[in-house]
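Late entry, iron/sulfur cluster complex.
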Amino acid sequence: MTYSVKEAFYSLQGEGAHTGRPAVFCRFTGCNLWSGRAADRAGAICQFCDTDFIGTDGQHGGRFHSAEALADHILALWPEGCGHRYVIFTGGEPLLQLDTDLIQAMHAREFVVGVESNGTLAAPEGIDWLCVSPKGTSDVVVKHCDELKLVFPQSAAPPERFSHIRATHRYLSPMNPYDANRITPQSDHTQAAIAYCLANPEWRLTLQTHKILGVD
Ligand SMILES: C[S@@+](CC[C@H](N)C(=O)[O-])C[C@H]1O[C@@H](n2cnc3c(N)ncnc32)[C@H](O)[C@@H]1O
Ligand SMILES: Nc1nc2[nH]cc(C(=O)O)c2c(=O)[nH]1
Ligand code: SF4
Ligand SMILES: [Mg+2]
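Prediction complete; structure with ligand written out below:
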């Protein structure tokens, strides 16, 4: 298996239940819900994506010809000699590439394995923390996850559509402008998400705190 990685970096998880937790992010190239090209955005299933996932030219990106090679590359980004290792596979859509070989290679290096997925593809065995973030009209095939993190509002994906998915945590994440690296949290979408959570207390609010803080 060859893995195509756009970028890899060490930062704090900005969103969801693990907000504030140090992690190596491994961002795979490619997605099944948008080509990543601006000209295709309006016709895509997912139209608000904030991420460049084309190519392998980002920081610590590249093509890796084995699970062992990519796992060593990720380990080299963790502070030397430190434990509490956490990797988050994202993208693009990580479940297009993540397989059991790579999960096992990360476990062998004492990493906890987190995944950020759109939920349209079956997940391999061994993931320690699965976050599913449904998109537009797409079909979510994942039936249970640790965290459902729905970008809000989406006209084709209201929270009620996902009541059948078993999730330990349910978060609404206000939709931010796709081209903004820095945000202030008091947007109309945030106000709407707050109102929805207050009326439907099984949902909690999460924010893209890395964009408030200005970190990767
Ligand atoms: C770029 S996606 C990659 C992982 C996967 N393809 C997915 O969609 O979950 C990472 C996270 O960013 C969120 N996201 C993308 N664009 C966003 C935006 N404009 N506002 C808020 N969250 C956004 C996604 O919902 C997802 O939780
Ligand atoms: N700090 C930080 N936290 C994140 N959580 C999910 C992210 C992603 O793009 O998948 C992300 C990201 O890009 N940066
Ligand atoms: S599914 Fe995820 S990576 Fe794909 S376009 Fe949407 S937000 Fe971006
Ligand atoms: Mg991001």
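Residues 3-213 form a domain with the TIM Barrel fold (CATH 3.20.20.70). Will revisit in the morning.
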